[in-house]
Specification:
This protein is mainly alpha-helical and 151 residues long. It has two domains: 4-89, Uncharacterised protein YqeY/AIM41, N-terminal domain (Hypothetical Protein Yqey, Chain: A, domain1); 98-150, Arc Repressor Mutant, subunit A (Orthogonal Bundle). It is 76% helix and 0% strand. The longest helix has 25 residues, at 48-72.
């Protein structure tokens, strides 16, 4: 199975041959972010978890930019960021449904023995590890807060 960097390299080559400049630019940025992460963490090779973490960070950047551009009325930049967001989301595994998300957070709460919002950090660490790229921190946090408040 090819490494995450090899997969991105193959897709860069495919984007070059199809002359898809928007996809090519985004893939080059993604490769740069992956290499930076690898150097920063002093890793020999990127694991799938590292790859998903970098992709999620890139997605969060796009979501933040989309919110800013929408507030500023910059439709031209908004369209570009939304297209990049769609490309990046294709790298993530199938997202968890609301029911699966709640079940995952409940299992982490049971494992950790958390009973209050003061233990939210412990629950979030476990939930993020178990979700492994299939849910974002914002949605996990909302479910964890709701479940910890209701006891």
């Amino acid at each position: 199975m090819p490494s995450p960097l090899e997969r991105v390299d193959a897709e860069i080559k495919a984007a070059m041959t199809s002359r898809d400049t928007a996809r090519l630019g985004l893939l080059r940025l993604l490769k740069s972010a992956l290499k930076y992460h690898q150097i920063e963490k002093k890793l020999d090779a990127l694991s799938e978890t590292d790859f998903l973490g970098v992709v999620q960070k890139q997605i969060k950047q796009r979501v933040d930019s989309i919110e800013s551009y929408r507030a500023a009325g910059r439709q031209d930049l908004l369209v570009k960021e939304e297209a990049e967001l769609a490309i990046l989301k294709a790298y993530l595994p199938q997202a968890l449904s609301a029911g699966e998300l709640e079940a995952l957070v409940k299992s982490v709460i049971a494992e950790t023995g958390a009973v209050s919002k003061a233990q939210l950090g412990v629950v979030m660490r476990g939930a993020l590890a178990k979700a492994a790229g299939r849910a974002d921190g914002k949605s996990l946090n909302a479910v964890a807060l709701r479940l910890l408040e209701n006891g």
